[in-house]
Amino acid sequence: MIPPxxxxxxxxSQSLVILTGAGVSAESGIPTFxxxxxxxxxxxxxxxxxxxxxxxxxxxxxxxxxxxxxxxVSKIEPNPAHHAIASLVSKIxxxxxxxxxxxxxxxxxxxxxxxxxxxxxxxxxxxxCNEPHADLENNAAKKSPLDRDQIIxxxxxxxxxxxxxxxxxxxxxxxxxNEYNLSEVLCMEADLLxxxxxxxLVYPAAxxxxxxxxxxxxxxxINYEVNEFESIxxxxxxxxxxxxxxxxxQLAFG
Length: 254
Ligand code: OAD
Ligand code: ZN
Hints:
Layout: H1 4-11, E1 15-20, H2 33-38, H3 46-49, H4 52-57, H5 59-74, H6 80-87, E2 94-99, H7 105-109, E3 115-116, E4 119-126, E5 132-133, E6 164-168, H8 177-189, E7 192-196, H9 208-214, E8 218-223, E9 235-238, H10 241-253
Parallel strand pairs: 1-2, 1-7, 2-3, 7-8, 8-9
Antiparallel strand pairs: 4-5, 4-6
The structure holds 2'-O-acetyl adenosine-5-diphosphoribose (OAD) and zinc ion (ZN).
């Protein structure tokens, strides 16, 4: 059941911010972080694959892991939740999408200008001088499908010869300052913040809903289960984003 007040709120919103987490991509087949930590990742040290120290210790292992992830993500599709968000672009005057996800499913569903707080899987940069590296060729285009055991050396920076790293935020690294500052401003100016599929456990991204609330925004969230934002949300919709979000957009905009 979707509350009529929320339908009205989204229908007449003048500045809507949507904050997404791994839950919005779950129905596309990307495991969420909590699933990973209790699932496939539980037997290995994520610090080795998602940290600068891990990259220094074994650049080829880390690079190969992200090549494997890119290969996997390139083979899956955006789900109805991504498409529902993209459909709002033409309906809401000021719509901003902020994501903690590093996949490109929002973009492939049609959202441009998405703010990626934790970086992007398909982008890379020099570990030494930070020079951006040309967008990675899509692994799907490669002849031999990349399997988990293939170890690939990272490329080298054309500017300084340093090793190229994935442009994602690793353990212990700060968020991109411009993206985070812009996200704070957008959340403080929003009349409605819609939070989709995040546990709200990782800061500073998890701070954004509290800022929005303090600045007077109404808060709605779609999640599969009760989470950190339960108490500050004006509307808590429990269920799958791929089902609830298209329904909410249908009820609001027909
Ligand atoms: P989590 O795995 O922590 O949380 C995913 C949330 O999505 C959970 O609250 C689930 O209940 C919910 N969920 C799962 N499937 C869903 C579905 N089909 N529909 C709706 N909700 C669903 O992932 P995040 O909150 O995104 O940081 O994690 C935040 C950050 O923690 C990640 O960006 C990553 C990790 O450390 C970095 O990579 C820097
Ligand atoms: Zn360099």
